[in-house]
User: What shape does this take?
Amino acid sequence: MQQSGKIKVAVIGPGNIGSDLMYKILRSPVLEMALMTGIVESEGIRRAAGLGIPVSTEGVAAVVRNPEIKLAFDATSASAHEKFDAPALSKAGIVAIDLTPAAVGPYCVPCVNLEQLMHEPNVNMVTCGGQATIPIVHAVHSVAGVEYAEIVAAIASRSAGPGTRANMDEFTETTSRAIEVVGKAKKGKAIIVLNPAEPPINMTDTVMIRVSDTSVPFETIRDSILDIVSQVQLYVPGYRLRVPPQMDGDKVSVVVQVEGQGDFLPTFAGNLDIINAAAIATAERIARNMLKGGAKG
Assistant: This one.
């Protein structure tokens, strides 16, 4: 029986990201953890079962068999989402929150464009670097335009599992494209760096922007950035400016840092925490719309 005031959801992919999502869902006021599913017996499956959550090793097939599930988080791989999960979820009328770089659906950065995506059947959470930096790019675009934006995402080597390492090319391509599509930069570029330092560093992202309109006062650009940072912090508490906005001619630079909430992953894994937090914020907003009788509900 669905709990009053909650929407039943599934997590596909019981790895580190999926396990962290599970713990975030368990404390959500509007999401109910209905299923953790993978394709093999794993530690993540056993962990979920130990918490009394229904589990399966039949992947997306187990999700679409449950008519009560309205939302599904996909934390598998780009190829699995594109070939198997997205088509199956679409056919079943289940909204997909895609945490892979597949980008079957439109890119979603909650504080920038979520309200325009409320009725989409599939939304893509871009990448960790995208979630951390696109709000900054968009904030600058909204007041001064952005000719070019380049981001360098530095993450701890220990926070980059097999999935992250296997999807490095997809990370740079997806992030670069989303900087343009969502951030509205005329040209975007993304670089990822794995830092082997011990103890591990928190995720740190450097954002370098060339503005279109150099007549806009720096104070206006700075205030726009500070406003968007406060909006991100509503759903990513560990998000902060490490180096405040700087401007030299037509160039604006910012450095942001993300500390994870430590739900399942270590706090230095802010790269994984931010995409999960953004996914939860997205799902909760869609769930509230469903509970009010909106589309897909």
